[in-house]
Design brief:
The structure holds three protein chains of three kinds. Chain A is an alpha/beta fold. Helices cover 34% and strands 28% of the residues of chain A. Chains A and C meet through helix 1, strand 6 and helix 2 of A and helix 1 and helix 4 of C.
Chain lengths: 308, 304, 241
């Protein structure tokens, strides 16, 4: 069980501040680092993996500093964002080489174990230059897992993966989190983070904006209403009925037909609204065709966080 | 009733102008203006004009270093010409590029990849090929930009020397003849260097390697040729040296100038016989055409 | 992980160096040297002056530094450029071990493509005087290895290592060295030329003590290697290019 402690860390380059006074503790389990591009996620992960020195503050793993300290890599594994171009090696040779560089007793066996874990056993003897993007990502993971690290850092691991590989990677991360490892990955795609991470850390413009469970963070923003689009078979009736309820702040009928039609709704109390809507619809005989939240996208979350 | 309502005040009217998407309906220029604009941009970019400040540093320094010795020579000629009884340029027009070849090589080596490798490496070439400019025109225009840029580099000190020579009262017609010969040589040299470096840059697409490869090719070829020429001159086997001179653009063009314009020689073994002189001229022409051919073939294989 | 040389990195380095264009140039350059030597020998027979000029001007000043530059920057610069070196650095292997292992590969290239061809060229030019060939071979060994250390340091300090290395070779060693005599105190080529002078009984460079040449080369080699390892300990992995 290892812990990463980030203590009042800032990193600037001339007059651009990439990370601005961030403090957080990353414990065992899967943590997601969420933020739009340019928020400082990659900079923070670089500092957590010992490849960048903070301008102020300290980054430690179990009390040991990461900067200029090679031995810490016995417990830390890193999956960087950029692809490795060891094109002249096969997958197996690459992972075995990493295992040898870690000084493992049986590099071949450890490599096989890691390759099996990411399910690349069939393709391991092909040259890396023939791999697809998802396969390259997975072989990078094998290289980072080969020494069984207690801490695993992944920078945008889902970039460029197709849905099936993504599901597989999510399973893998959850499995490793369940084993008690400290797993941190960064992403700007909400669904990936939501499904895998139990704890998320949100970074916006270099600042640590929020941490915790995403739904809980969302519900903390109670001064901003939830927006929905409802398509029903009797818009006007349902809108007027909903407006009578306390959880609804506003309703507007859209003028289009079919998919462009419907009700635009603002609900201030999400919990109550999600109970009220189906009840009222059934009571008044209105059929709900579609209920879509329009602001559960990352953009709106971030814009709430930034403007608050 | 309607008369009454019309007489009181006409109802306020309003119209909503639904502009929507306005496509461009003006004249569209054809291939030639596109190619010209592309040529001018390429030319300006080799000297860093129209780009960031950092890209101006190296070309401008090289240009300055090329002009500096010419300035000094002109100064000496004008001030002390009578005193030292100088009746011609201290360094001949045709010899100057040979003396400053290092600067020219560095310039060509750094700018050819910027013009040619960059588009290939990062795939931006598809932006150019999707315009009304044919692929072959793209290649020729790029090469032309590089050639003219190199010509400016090689030729501007010669212009300076010519003006200085006129100031120093050197004979007009003779100086002009020599100057024009030197400029023709500068153009040929620029064409050869641009062609060779463009070919190397187009084949090795990574920028750092392209720069290195161009310098290696130019430097090694000249050193080898110079060594052979020196040794063959001392050993009185000049034919070998003359043939060797075909293999480096600097000695090749110098030989052409020696043959066509009677310029003073700058290499130990310039071509003496008519046959060899024609071979020099033919090789120059073939080099330029061959490079163009290789480039066209290479760019035909580009897949966006 | 206290071993000074990591066989893994040596293996990786040896594979990577021939996987790109650099491999071709590494073969072409010594071929040019030997080809020229053959030509000179055919032209003038065994002439001391021509042989010296050929091996010095082309071999020691141009070919050997270029081989060192190609080998060393080919081992370090591409991996730093695209971030692959982070896979080597994210291990408990000592940074100095990484540098030394890569330099072992570079030294081997210098030996195979620089020193041996110089020996062969020297024997081709003057078979009656083996000390000539041996002198140039040892001189190129010293200057080649010293250059490797210099170019390794350049590779980890700047992205433009290759260009700067070339400018150093061309302008400092080539142009200025030919013009100014004082350059010899700070010129790797001239230090090794002094060594050649002693062994082959030539006079390529004047007034340069042998002990100075040897010590200076040694210092540059050791300090360059150590500083490169030091810089790698503080390596910054940047995100996008």
């Amino acid at each position: 069980m290892s812990e990463i402690k980030i203590d009042h860390v800032s990193r600037w380059y001339r007059n651009v501040v990439a990370v601005n006074d961030v403090s957080m503790t990353i414990g065992p389990g899967v943590t997601g680092l969420l933020g739009p591009n340019g928020a400082g996620k990659t900079t923070l992960i670089a500092m957590m993996s010992g490849f960048l020195a903070p301008s102020t503050g300290t980054v430690t793993v179990d009390g040991q500093p990461l900067w200029r300290n090679e031995q810490v890599y016995r417990t830390v594994g890193l999956v960087p964002e950029r692809e490795a171009t060891f094109d002249y090696l096969t997958g197996r040779q690459f992972v075995v080489a990493c295992a040898e560089l870690h000084g493992l007793d049986d590099p071949g066996a450890s490599a096989q174990r890691a390759i099996a874990q990411i399910e690349m056993t069939d393709a391991q003897d092909r040259s890396i230059s023939t791999y697809s993007k998802g396969m390259k990502q997975r072989i990078k993971m094998a290289a980072s897992l080969v020494h069984d690290p207690a801490v695993l850092l992944l920078d945008e691991p889902f970039n460029g993966m197709d849905p099936r590989q993504r599901i597989h990677l999510m399973d893998l991360l959850r499995e490793m989190g369940a084993e008690g490892r400290t797993v941190l990955f960064s992403s700007h795609i909400l669904e990936e983070v939501e499904q895998v991470a139990r704890q998320i850390e949100v970074m916006v413009a270099g600042r640590h904006a929020a941490s915790g469970d995403f739904g809980a963070i969302r519900r903390l923003m109670t001064d901003r209403p939830n927006r929905f689009v409802l398509r029903t078979d009797n818009d006007r009736l349902l809108a007027s009925v909903l407006l009578a309820d306390a959880s609804v702040r506003g309703a507007r009928l859209r003028t289009g037909r079919g998919a462009d039609g419907g009700i635009e709704l603002e609900a201030s109390d999400f919990g109550r609204f999600s109970e009220v809507l189906p009840r009222l619809a059934r009571e008044h005989g209105v059929r709900l065709l579609e209920v879509t939240p329009t602001d559960e996208s990352l953009e709106s979350v971030f814009s709430y966080l930034v403007s608050s | 009733m309607s008369n009454q309502s019309e007489q009181t005040s006409p109802p306020p009217t309003a119209v909503i102008h639904d502009l929507g998407y306005r496509p461009y309906t003006g004249p569209r220029l054809g291939e030639r203006p596109v190619a010209w604009a592309f040529f001018v941009t390429g030319l300006r970019n080799t000297y860093g004009l129209g780009r960031s400040g950092r890209s101006k540093v190296l070309p401008m320094i090289l240009l300055g270093l090329m002009l500096l010795p010419a300035l000094i020579l002109v100064g000496v000629l004008v001030q002390a010409g009578k005193l030292l009884e100088l009746d011609s340029q201290i360094v001949a027009y045709s010899s100057y590029p040979l003396t400053t070849q290092l600067l020219i090589s560095v310039f060509v080596a750094s700018q050819a990849p910027a013009l040619i490798s960059r588009d290939l490496r990062f795939g931006t070439i598809t932006l150019y090929l999707a315009r009304p400019m044919r692929r072959s025109v793209y290649v020729l225009v790029r090469l032309a930009s590089l050639t003219v840029a190199t010509f400016v580099l090689i030729g501007s000190p010669l212009v300076l020397m010519y003006l200085g020579g006129l100031l120093a009262d050197l004979p007009f017609t003779r100086e002009t003849e020599r100057f024009l010969g030197g400029m023709v040589g500068a153009l040929l040299l620029a064409a050869c260097l641009a062609g060779l470096s463009a070919v190397v840059a187009a084949l090795t697409v990574r920028r750092g390697l392209a720069v290195a490869a161009v310098i290696v090719v130019l430097l090694v070829s000249y050193t080898v040729v110079a060594t052979i020429q020196g040794i063959s001159y001392d050993a009185d086997q000049r034919d070998v040296g003359e043939i060797a001179g075909l293999f480096s653009p600097y000695t090749l063009v110098n030989g052409v100038q020696y043959f066509l314009f009677d310029s003073p020689r700058a290499t130990p073994t310039p071509p003496r016989s008519t046959g060899m002189g024609i071979a020099y001229v033919a090789t120059t022409v073939l080099t330029v055409l061959g490079c163009i051919g290789v480039l066209l073939a290479r760019f035909r294989r580009v897949r966006p | 992980m206290s071993a000074a040389i990591s066989p893994t990195i040596v293996r990786l380095g040896a594979r990577s160096i021939f996987s790109r264009w650099r491999g071709v140039l590494l073969f072409v350059l010594p071929a040019i040297l030997i080809g020229l030597s053959l030509l000179v020998r055919v032209l003038v027979g065994q002439d001391e002056a021509s042989a010296g000029v050929t091996l010095y001007r082309l071999g020691l000043v141009v070919i050997v530094p270029l081989i060192a530059l190609l080998a060393t920057s080919g081992l370090l610069a591409p991996e730093i450029d695209d971030g692959s070196i982070s896979y080597l650095l994210a291990t408990p292997t000592s940074r100095h071990t990484i540098v030394i292992s890569k330099l072992v590969v570079a030294f081997s290239c210098v030996l195979a493509f620089g020193v041996l061809p110089m020996l062969v060229a020297g024997l081709v030019l003057r078979p009656d005087s083996p000390s000539f060939a041996v002198g140039f071979a040892i001189g190129s060994l010293v200057s080649g290895t010293t250059y490797c250390a210099v170019f390794a340091l350049l590779s980890v300090m700047t992205r433009h290592a290759v260009v700067i290395g070339l400018i150093y070779v061309l302008i400092w060693e080539g142009l200025l060295g030919g013009l100014l005599d004082g350059v010899r105190w700070l010129s790797v080529v001239r230090w090794s030329a002094e060594i050649v002078d002693r062994i082959a009984d030539l006079s390529l460079v004047d007034d340069l003590p042998l002990t100075y040449a040897l010590i200076a080369s040694g210092i540059v080699l050791v300090v360059g290697t150590w500083r490169t390892g030091w810089r790698l300990r503080a390596f910054n992995l940047t995100g996008d290019e």
